[in-house]
Amino acid sequence: MATTGSLDESRRPLATELLIVVAALLAVQLWTGTLWQRVVGPAVRSLSLADALGVDGLGAFLASSFVYSGPLVASVVVIAAVYVRARNVPVGTALPGRSDLAMVALAVATPLVLIGVTDLVGNVTSVPFKTLVLTAYAERASVTFAAGTTLARVFVAVPLALVLNQVLVQGSFRSITSSDTAIALTTLLGAFVLGDQGLVGGIGETSKYVGVGLFALASLAVHVSWRRFDARWIWAVAAVPAVLFVVLSGVQWVASIDSIAAGLYGLANVATLGVAAYTYERTDSLLVPALAYASLLVASEAVVFLFEPGPLW
């Protein structure tokens, strides 16, 4: 089981830590969503690596993907490394041992089972799985092509998910609070911020981070009211903004579900986030949550390729 920092949360309220985490995530979002996509990325993409290597077809696609995505992933890892060093955030770099095999199995099996159930329900309710993941393969696409594109996606999505969820978010929370609280906060924050973009490999929109920042400020107001005032009505008034945020977010999430299959797919993503956080906390190894994220991606691609080839719509 992973060790955490001091559990004396009075020295730094969780709301304060949440504000720090949101600031770090915003820095990543600014780099990947603005500077990289608009400035650095186009310059990197213009490099003709495929021509230099003399490859075409799938080889050209993979070469272009890796030459574009490699520096992006590396730059995000550098940002995370600076954050970790500056704040002394614990990062689990150990390899899982024999005692962790149950956690490894849980990480791999949970996404596989939930994606399978989602596809089954989608077939019964006439909701193609590929419309949920927004991925399609031509009917005569080769196994090599499907494997190559899946590998390219895993190469980008899994490191990004680890950096955002385990290193920046969970690593920050686990240093000041209990493991269970860190797991819950990591799962909930990821589900809220990344819900519209796919929970594995997404970065999140600025508006979502601003929303979480406002929630953190509201929570900090609750914390201050509890420590400085004895009147319960003041506590209740201070809690209103935070409670409203939670209720409205829940209502918005429920309203966004347009089918049973879509709800199950969302559950599969959130469960994968939760399992990744749980297994990371229990094994102190980034490899285990990486397997959970990879399992979700590979299972999703496999369902589309094997059972639903053809146009997306």
Give a description of the structure.
This protein has 11 helices and no strands. The protein is mainly α. It has one domain. Helix 7 packs antiparallel against helix 10 and helix 8 packs antiparallel against helix 9. The protein starts with 13 loop residues before the first helix and ends in a 6-residue tail after the last helix. The N terminus is likely disordered.
Task: Tell me the major beta sheet.
Answer: none
Total number of domains = 1
Order of helices and strands: HHHHHHHHHHH
Overall geometry comes to: globular
- The helix content, as a percent range, equals over 70%
Radius of gyration of CA atoms, rounded to a whole number:
21 Å
Strand content: under 5%
- Overall pLDDT score: 82
Notable features of this structure?
mainly alpha; 11 helices
Give the helix/strand layout:
Elements: H1 14-45, H2 49-53, H3 58-87, H4 101-124, H5 130-133, H6 143-174, H7 179-194, H8 206-228, H9 232-256, H10 260-283, H11 287-307
Helix pairs in contact: 1-3, 1-6, 1-8, 3-6, 4-10, 4-11, 6-7, 6-10, 6-11, 7-10, 8-9, 10-11
Q: Care to give the gist of this entry?
A:
The protein is an all-alpha fold and 313 residues long. The chain has helices spanning 14-45, 49-53, 58-87, 101-124, 130-133, 143-174, 179-194, 206-228, 232-256, 260-283, 287-307.
